[in-house]
Amino acid sequence: MSDTPFRPYAPPKAWTHFKPNGGVMQGSKKTDIFYGWRVVAAVFVLATLGWGVGFYGPPIYLHTVQETRGWSLSVVSMAVTAHYLFGALVVANLPKLYRHFGVSRVTKVGSITLAVGVAGWAFAKEPWQLFAATLVSGVGWATMGAAAVNAIIAPWFVRTRPAALSSAYNGASIAGVVFSPLWVATIGLFGFPWATVAIGLVMIVVIWILADVYFAKMPEQMGLIPDGVAPISRPAPPIERSCPGNQLWRDRRFITLAAGMSLSLFAQIGLLAHLFSLLVPALGEQLAGFVAGLATAAAIAGRTLVGWLMPAGADRRLFSGGNCILQIVGSLAFLFAAGDNLPLLFLGILLFGAGIGNNTSLPPLIAQAEFSKEDVSRVVPLIVAISQGTYAFAPAAFGFIRALEYRSSSISGGAAPWVFICAALIQAAGAVAFLVGRDERVGGTKIEG
């Protein structure tokens, strides 16, 4: 018999970190909540702050700057476009920044940049200072927008990524509900400059805490696997095609995906930018604000339903095409409302609103299903950057259509038929782009990490 003292068996360290059901196990302490869902909750907060300051804020900044400085609407509108355009350039390079500096560090610096840039909007005394501030705020918005949400969620989920992304992206919709009135109230209480300082500081503190606690960790560092559960069926075969280097720009799937996302968001953001003012003649300002809020509620419901109910092997391009058709029907309801038919106006709000969230969350899911894991990390930032650079011009383009319409006819109030017709036509083009790029293989989509 060996003289070696008896030692009780200790399971390997990696085994102690996860259970078959995806819960975390450390010693004798067990929890049934996969850590990735805590990351989703943190990204929900990130999206709420990012969209609240970087996306829903600029329309309010535009109005406030114009009122306080007396600058022309065209100058301030061009500043908003510059904010989105410069952000698009940064989004396209996010993968490189993440590789060199890490997600946590990039996100923390981005929160500071966004806060400083927005404060620059408020403290600008000359137009050139405003444009300089928009470049800074655009950089920060890029690190807290759609590409960032996808990059943080992707390592934690593969099979249940649609549900995870839809839950995280709902923070963007909540931002529209919370931050629009919050900005108005805070500016009214403290003035524009100090409102940006107060909200910016809160954002920085919250993002730094989330980045250190959640965004700095990867599943493999914690001994976990994506989705928190080992596959129970044979995994899908790897996606054969890869698009290294410039081949991506010649790939039909990439081109049609970028076109579909850009067209659908161009129509959506162009119409939403003018929707409030189109509702006011029939509803008044208070009710119009409430009704516009219904669009956000419909967006949350639509995104959540698709994220949780879409089958794992479903053709995601069909869902995107159907989402465009849903918004086309909403635009037609606005058209036939003729500015004063309340039931049709409410129907338009619900139908168009139900598709708002999916225009952002579905394209990254299509990329996951159609491209190799290595390509997805490039494809998602690029389609987000292309769409952002495109929709930056949407408010101005729809404003131009609206101005021409009023100038060339006797139309007034909330009736703007060509605005709604153009929105429907552009959404139709987006649906065609999504459907043209469908994979011809039979048997559903293949999903890789």
Automatic annotation (TrEMBL):
One of its GO terms (molecular function) is transmembrane transporter activity. The keyword GTP-binding does not apply. It comes from Bradyrhizobium oligotrophicum S58. Keywords: Membrane, Transmembrane, Transmembrane helix. The keyword Nucleotidyltransferase does not apply. This is MFS transporter. The chain crosses the membrane at residues 35-53, 73-94, 106-124, 130-157, 169-191, 197-215, 254-275, 287-306, 318-338, 344-367, 379-403, 415-436. The lineage of its organism: Bacteria, Pseudomonadati, Pseudomonadota, Alphaproteobacteria, Hyphomicrobiales. InterPro entries: MFS (IPR011701), MFS_trans_sf (IPR036259), Proton-linked_MCT (IPR050327).
